[in-house]
Design brief:
The protein is α+β, with helices and mostly antiparallel strands and about 220 residues long. It is built from eight helices and four strands, in the order H-H-H-H-H-H-H-H-E-E-E-E. Strand 3 and strand 4 form a beta hairpin. The termini are far apart.
Length: about 220
């Protein structure tokens, strides 16, 4: 399909660029304050570049929740995609472009789709790309499995913030880690639940990374 081909082309380009940034940068004269910190710096040895690549791969592996024993072919591919995506995200420039991406990132279906989006040049062309694929930020319709959970007031890993709102309502407290644009937050809820001693207050904390649920706890 044409859509699949465009995704594959974007992924291939991203992986090539990632390799160039991590290997080819070693001989380039760049300031340490230039912001290009994803690959080798000037004067880095091959061993240091290899260590940097390993750290980035492990960071992607942890982010995806894979143990070393789970690093089979399919999961290695997912880790490679995540590493390439992180490199592309570092190249985002301008507040408007950054906000456009992170506002819609949770509603894209995969890292490959996110890389395809970032491979499009220009704010307006990216906006058209999103509209064509029905990615509308918080207005994006829930998938059928997520909608089914919303209807029974339940949540699950990977849920967007809007889906949690639709399921549990507005949080009583929102705590933001770092720049709000990245969507790393902790939401607090409380609810009266029945017990042998009558109704007790149950406190719930929901954790988001990049606008999606990564965990929750009850107290």
């Amino acid at each position: 399909m044409k859509y699949a081909s465009s995704l594959d082309a974007a992924v291939s380009a991203a992986l090539i660029l990632l390799g160039l940034s991590q290997v080819g940068c070693a001989g380039m004269n760049r300031s340490r304050s230039s912001g290009y910190d994803s690959g080798g710096r000037r004067g880095d040895s091959p061993g240091e570049i290899s260590s940097q690549k390993t750290r980035e791969r492990l960071a992607s592996q942890r982010e995806l929740g894979f143990t070393d024993d789970e690093m089979n072919g399919d999961n290695r591919s997912l880790v490679a995609d995540r590493t390439a995506l992180r490199a592309m995200e570092k190249q985002l420039e301008g507040k408007r472009e950054t906000e456009q991406y992170y506002k819609n990132k949770p509603y894209m279906r995969s890292d490959r789709e996110r890389m395809a989006f970032l491979s499009v040049d220009g704010f307006d062309d990216r906006a058209a790309w999103l509209e064509k694929r029905g990615v509308l930020g918080a207005k994006t319709p829930h998938t059928a499995p997520i909608q089914a959970l919303v209807e029974i007031n339940d949540i699950t890993l990977g849920m967007t913030k809007q889906a949690v709102r639709d399921s549990w309502g507005e949080p009583e407290l929102v705590e933001v880690a770092g720049n709000p644009v990245y969507g790393n937050e902790r939401w607090a809820y409380s609810e009266q639940v029945p017990s042998n001693e009558g109704y007790l207050t149950e406190h719930r904390l929901v954790y988001f990374e990049s606008g999606r649920v990564v965990g929750w706890e009850k107290k």
